[in-house]
Amino acid sequence: MDKKFEVLPEHIAIIMDGNGRWAKKRGLERTEGHKVGAEVFRKICQYASDIGIKYMTFYAFSTENWKRSEKEVGKIMDLLRVYLGEMEEREEENEAAGYNIRFIGSREGMPEDIVTLMDIVESRSNDKDKIHINIAVNYGGRAEIVKSAKELAEKVKNGELQPKDITEDMISAGLYTANQPDPDLIIRPSGEYRLSNFLIWQAAYAEFFYDDILWPDYTPADLDRAIEAFLKRNRRFGGV
Ligand code: FPP
Q: How far, in Å, CA of 42 to CA of 187, rounded?
């Protein structure tokens, strides 16, 4: 594929929103929207890899999403199960695609078979580096910061660390995204203007791009538009 952009954001994060509304508009069950949403997720991963994006993070399931009906939660878990099963079965294809997959979020409370598959897929892909794909499942940004704080508190308790020596880098190192660059661009389709507890620490200097499209309608051309808008912005990181 020809080089489409001379420069690219290194890390793009996407809130896959609007599946329910997409389905409702068509007189379908909400779960049908998630099904199409999962296909769009696959396509966008492939496209991002093709154009040379190094890190993508997708918000698939938040800690708050457990409040949805049992049927809807079950369907989202099933879609994950299918995706993970495919990743596990098609090892050679994945090897060639060079996906490095990481699940960010708490494993606690997740179905055991999914946790097992997550561990397998992560460990088999952790030496790849064409593109890093983070899938946020049972994820909450505040909870992630609390997790990091607890780890540092343990070190203080054990005498390995002095409170005055705690740095921002140490907090970052305790997050699920440890050793990864912060997102440069966060995209939220579906006309919502909220961060919804997504990567709240990592988003400190991210550019936001909001879009009216519902996630099941999202295409590579929409990702291109977001990247183009990002490239026109002048990022100063607090400077002048
Ligand atoms: C938000 O739309 C979407 C979700 C909470 C679920 C996203 C999950 C997937 C796309 C499937 C995950 C599968 C894989 C393989 C990663 P919404 O339901 O809040 O839509 P609404 O705002 O229109 O109701």
A: 17
Contacts of 36 (CB under 8 A, 6+ apart): 19, 22, 216
- pLDDT recorded at residue 37: 97
Percent of the chain with pLDDT over 90: 90
pLDDT band at 31 (very low <50, low <70, confident <90, very high): very high
Q: List all residues whose CB is within 6 A of at least one atom of ligand 1.
A: 16-21, 34, 37-38, 41, 60, 65, 76, 79-80, 83, 135
In sequence order, which ranges of 26-167 are alpha helices (DSSP H)? Answer: 30-51, 70-89, 91-97, 112-125, 141-157
Q: What domains can you pick out in the chain, each with its CATH number?
A: 11-140+183-231 (3.40.1180.10)
Residue 1 has pLDDT above 70, yes or no: no
pLDDT for 4: 84
The predicted-structure confidence for 101-158, as pLDDT tens digits, reads as follows: 999 999 999 999 999 999 999 999 999 999 999 999 999 999 999 999 999 999 999 9
Ligand 1 atom at minimum distance from 58 CA: 16
What is the set of active-site residues? 17, 65
Q: Please state whether the predicted TM-score (pTM) of the whole model is above 0.85.
A: yes
Ligand 1 atom having least distance to the Cα of 37: 10
Q: Do residues 145 and 201 make contact, with C-beta atoms less than 8 angstroms apart?
A: yes
Residue 168: pLDDT over 90: yes
CA of residue 11 to ligand 1 center, whole Å: 21
